[in-house]
Amino acid sequence: GAGVSQSPSNKVTEKGKDVELRCDPISGHTALYWYRQSLGQGLEFLIYFQGNSAPDKSGLPSDRFSAERTGGSVSTLTIQRTQQEDSAVYLCASSPGLASDTQYFGPGTRLTVL
Amino acid sequence: SQQGEEDPQALSIQEGENATMNCSYKTSINNLQWYRQNSGRGLVHLILIRSNEREKHSGRLRVTLDTSKKSSSLLITASRAADTASYFCATVQLGGSNYKLTFGKGTLLTVNP
After folding, report:
1. pLDDT digits (tens, 9 = 90+) for B60-69
2. Across the interface, do A108 and B45 touch by the CB < 8 Å criterion?
3. Which of A8, A72, B21, B70 is deepest in the core (most CB within 10 A)?
């Protein structure tokens, strides 16, 4: 079946603008995760959804970052007032349930903030 | 913070040779997973080994886990140029946040034809 998809694949924006990144998980997967990969910080956990709820937002770097998930499916990660340090690849993953399931990753969105 | 630390950071070998990458971690784990990443984009899941397992095989991949030493190794046998990629170990912590993956910094493997 189809894997995790993310859009856009690349996004270039100006400092101070808002951006929205989209993730379509594998159908039927209840858990969804966002990670960020940057040169300086490696791969970092951002947020986790179980269904539409986000029990763990501990990885969000600042209050400029928010995420939502609707219908237990699509998720959107929003970054407001982007800064140059937000430049990174944003990866989404999904898994059938939670707690130790294999996570399946999308191709990522490369965000560049000028 | 990074839990896993891969060793070496970079590895260059000839096609047909075996490649061994190591990973160390700090806390008790539920499982450890290895991923491959090509060209800095999506991660491909390779293998998952649970804390009560010591060795696992998948095709040309062999993973070992030593929980007493908090370490794991990934062996790729008979390497191919297509195996060129970055390889990451990731752990799922025991208890607490038992869903999020904590990644190491990765090993860049180059297989020369």
Report:
1. 999 999 999 9
2. no
3. B21
